Fold:
Amino acid sequence: MKKWVSPVLIAILFVGTVVNGFLYARQATDVAGMEDRITSLTGAIETLSGNVSNLSGSVSNLRTDVAGTKEGITSLETTIETITKPTPSNTWTALASDPALQLLQAPPSGKAQNVFLVVMDGVRYSETFGDPLHRYIPHIWNDLRPIGTINTEFNNNDITVTVPGHTSMLTGVWQKIKNDASERPHNPTIFEYYRKQTGAPASKTWVVTEHMNLVAINYSDTSGWGESYGARLDSPGLHQSTPPPENADMGPLKFGGDVGTFDILKHVMQRDRPSLVMVNLGQTDGMGHAGKWTAYTNAILDADTIVYYLWLKIQSMPYYKDKTTLILTNDHGRFLDGNGTGFQDHGGIDDGNRHLMFLAIGPNIKSGAQVDTPRELIDIGPTIASMMGINMTQAMGKNMTELLR
Structure:
């Protein structure tokens, strides 16, 4: 019996070994398959990780863009809330209830006693009047254009940079000067003509500028003219420590940039009642140079809001209401897409650099009109001079009579 059992046991052990070997082989195959699946899953996870990393970078960039405009938007909201409340009155109630009926009517015919020249620095025509949807200038196009006159053929036909552009407007002569505030205009400015011919004090003429490279444009280096007849000047950049003497009563600025510029302007308007003012809104140019499209277009939207509320401010003050002309333009544009660095820079001769926005609103300006008479920056000074009843003897530009009623 023992001799017979042993072979059976051996056979059973052999079969068990074979089965175990088969199971082991199958298990090994399963493990190998699992390893392949793990490897594949690991690759998928790595790819997903890369996508998440890219998404994180995009979110980070978006947060940077939002942070760059959030302060300006908040500032504008604060500005809008307080803009017409220099003293207790019912003005803000009127604005809130029906601003279009109260303040957005064309001024009645008459002579302009005050002129505000507002320069939206370095904005292309393609982002203003040249945009069929007017996405970035809703107030200018929908609210202000219908009560004024626009010119669709207005150009900078000389140096397409900031300081030469601004000073060419003020003098009526193309200015070949540096763009760094190291030179003054080489011909008398409209401020000097106005003060010399009318005897007005310096407080009646102002330059309020966001761009610090414009701090030398308020009077010329012309013999017999100059500082004695120059305008007062202020900029948010001059408030870094203490306010300049001209605005020592203002205290520290809460905001910089275009909003800070507007805060200075409102203070000056309330205190001095200036008759002749140039305002530079420079963040549009600065954001263009930064090379971020959304920052550039948001700056245009912010400037559009400021210009709109400036007109409401003008029309809410009895001193200015129906006696003030507002002129809005650019000093230069920017390169067309495909030329140079595109919207990021300027200084060229293409249409993107030369073609400018132009709008005028005032008691002697046609309402709801569009003209296409070819005009240029140096025509602004003589046009303002004609409105104010003064003579710019050295100006080369012409009076834009087609604007008038």
Remarks:
- DSSP finds eleven helices and eleven strands in the chain.
- The first helix runs from residue 2 to 82.
- The chain has a mean pLDDT of 84.
- The chain has one domain: 75-403.
